[in-house]
Amino acid sequence: MSTLSNELASLPSLEKQKEFLGNKLFPLVLERVKNPDITSKVTGDLLELDNDQLCRLIDSQDALNAQIDEKRAEIEMCEPSMQQT
Predict the structure, then answer these.
(1) Can you tell me the distance from the alpha carbon of 50 to that of 56, in angstroms, rounded to the nearest whole number?
(2) Fewer Cβ close by (within 10 Å): the C or N end of the chain?
(3) Which stretch of DSSP H or E encloses residue 18?
(4) What local confidence, expressed as pLDDT, does residue 3 receive?
(5) DSSP labels, 54-80
(6) What is the pLDDT of residue 61?
């Protein structure tokens, strides 16, 4: 079990676990996306994944970047005003 998984297991509720993961994910997504509005939406979408998947993504930059790019493309397709210029 990774250190991240251990930290997550120590939290008392699923809500606290998702908050913890969101706090870990947001800066990683922002670094890739560079747009706070899209970052919030991508992070929210990623938080719909189960916690084990999220831990694996956080531990694997390549896998995380692929998921970020996929979610960003979905958001930009649904909301053309969110596209970066």
Answers:
(1) 10
(2) C
(3) helix 14-33
(4) 86
(5) HHHHHH-HHHHHHHHHHHHHHHHHH-G
(6) 95
